[in-house]
Each structure stands twice: as C-alpha cells, then as structure tokens.
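ARCHIVE CARD
Drawer: 12
Card no.: 0347
Subject: one protein chain, sequence and derived structure
Cross-reference: see card 0346
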Amino acid sequence: MKLPLIISLCLLSGWQAFSQISDIASLPAASKSRVMSYLTLANNHAVIYSGKEELGYPAYVRNHPYFPSDQYLHGDLSFDGVVYPDVLMRLNVHREELVVTAPNRRFHVIIPRDRLDYATLNSNILFYNGYRVKENSLPEGYFFILYQGRHAVIRRETAFLDEQITDMAINVLFNKRVRYYVYKDGQYHPVSSKGSVLKLFNSHKKELNQFIKEQHLDFKHATEHAIVAVSKHYETLIRQL
C-alpha cells in the first residue's frame, strides 16, 4: 500500500509538509459532525475496533511494554483517510502495535499498520515507517515526531524481553530503548549525545556549544529536550547566513 500523500511528502522534505496535517480541531464542522455521529451510532462496532485483538502477556512478566504507560490515552487517529477524534490508544513498543480500546473497554484491538495515516498520542504525532525504509534511512517501526522544522527530530522506542537472575530467582521483564534521529542533508541521522549532535551540525559547532552552556542543556537526563533545542537553534544560525 502506498503511503498517504502527506506522509510521503514529509519523508522527502524533512517533515516540513507535516504542517499540512489537520488535527480534529481544525477540521470543518460538517466533517467533525459526521465522524462523531458515526462513532456514536456504531459505538463498539466502529471500523477501527474491528481488527485483530491484542494478545496478552504471561503474568510472570514484571513490567509492561507500552509507551508512555500501560494506561490508554485519548488522541486523534487518522485511519484510511478519516480522522477519528478522542480515541483511546496505547503503543506496544515490543510488538510494534498501536492498540485501541472500544468504548466498553472489553476489547484491545490492533490498528493495521498499512491503514494508519497517523495518530496523535502523548502530544506528538505518531506514524509507522515501513514502506520507504531504503529511501528515508530509517528502520521499520513506529516513530514520534518531536519537532517538525527543517531539521526535524523524531523518536523511536523499542522494548525486548530480558531475564535477570537475582537471589536464585529469575525475573522476566521488558527493557526499553529510545533512539533519536535528526533530518539533515536528505537523510535521518541517529543521535544520542551532545557529541553526536555537534558532529552533525559541525559547521556551527562553536556557537552551538556556547548555546548548550548558556541554556544548561542536559543531554544525559533530558536528552529529548536538548536535541530539539539544539536543532531549533541551528536553524536560526543558518538563517542568519
């Protein structure tokens, strides 16, 4: 299946086209009314709740694989080109599954990746990258857009099951890993530290280093904030040339 036009444009232009995405608040009143009427009438039988049900995990697993938590959060979901408002969702970063729950909360349904345009979850846009992997230099999986400028910043979180032996007992739990990518020169570059960000923006390394000190940016404990702040500031520097 082809990527939606907006997503395709973003992959080719560093997410600048994501400003074209309309959330539910900016949809025409008639469109919102039709969607809300459909959801009210269909209730638990709406098309977004008709997919495969999520499988549970064994009781001995000590934590959960969801981001940002195992609680469902309200967000907008664009499915087959239709925006559904105020949907309860959570992201399973172990199985790479976006899960929704129907109004009665009895079912946990997996959204088909090839029918998802985008979702808004935890105040960020979520999309699935699986169709243009070679072209956009990103691995397959779910990503959050943290910054939508010329040098966009995106985040991917994954989880894997691990066994830890303590005091003759075996604990099975999920270990999570977060990776960040910054768009520059036509591709996405993995970054994880102050050094990797300054290397990417090497042409203004001195100015950025000064900015990091002045703003007290902490790449160890507030990595996400620091990467976004530096990417934004780099754009102001190159605009001054």
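Annotation on reverse: Residues 1-30 have pLDDT under 50 and may be disordered. The chain has two domains: 5-191, 193-241.
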